[in-house]
Amino acid sequence: MSKLRLFARMTVLAIVCAMCLQGRAQTSPVAYGILLFDQQNQVTQLVSFPFPEMTGFEEIQDFGSLYLSAGVYYDGYYYASSNGYATTNVKAEELLRIDLETGERATVGEFSGFSNKIADMTVDYSTGTCYAVSGSIG
After folding, report:
1. What is the pTM of this model?
2. Helix (H, G, I), strand (E, B) or coil at 106
3. Cβ contacts of 30 within 8 Å, gap of 6 or more
4. Distance CA 7, CA 120 (A)
5. How many Cα atoms sit within 13 Å of 82 on the Cβ side?
6. Omega before 50 cis (within 30°)?
7. Which residues are CB-neighbours of 72 under 8 A, at least 6 positions away?
8. How far lies 124's CA from each of 3, 52, 82, in Å?
C-alpha cells in the first residue's frame, strides 16, 4: 500500500474518530488508526495522532504481522477486527479490544458467518451497539 493511500485512509479514519470525540471535554483531540504492515519490514500498529494537525503518530500497540482490517474507538477502548497472521486470509476471525489506558489486549470473541474481512466499523453511541460492514470488492 502506498504511503499516500495509507495517509488517505488514516485521514478518513481521523475524521470519523474526531466526530466520535465531539462533545467530549478534551483539550487536544486525538484520533486512532491502524497502521498496516507492508513488505518493507513494518509491523501492524495501533497508533494515535493529533487531529486535525496530523503532525505525526504515536504507537500504542505493536501487533507484528497480525492483520487488522478495521477498527473503532468506544469508551476508552479500541476494537479491531483481526484476519489472523496471513494477509491472504480474507475472512474475519476475531474481534479484539485494546484498553487505551493500560494497553491490555483481549479477544472479545470469534466472528462467524463472514466470508470476507471486515471493511469498516462504527458505534451507535446512543445504544452502545457496534456495527461492521463486510463484503467483496470483486
Report:
1. 0.73
2. strand
3. 21, 48, 49, 50, 51
4. 16
5. 24
6. no
7. 78, 79, 121, 122, 123, 130
8. 31, 23, 21
Please report, in tens digits, the pLDDT of each residue of the chain (138 residues total). Answer: 444 444 444 444 444 444 444 444 445 688 888 887 766 657 888 888 888 887 888 888 888 888 888 999 999 999 999 988 866 667 888 999 999 999 899 999 998 888 888 889 999 999 999 999 887 765
Q: Which three cell numbers stand for residue 82?
A: 483481526
Distances 125 to 26, 47, 111, 119, 134 between C-alpha atoms, Å: 18, 22, 22, 20, 21
Which residue matches cell numbers 498496516? Answer: 36
Residue 91: what residue type?
K
Cell numbers 477486527 label which residue?
81
Which grid coordinates are listed for 36? 498496516
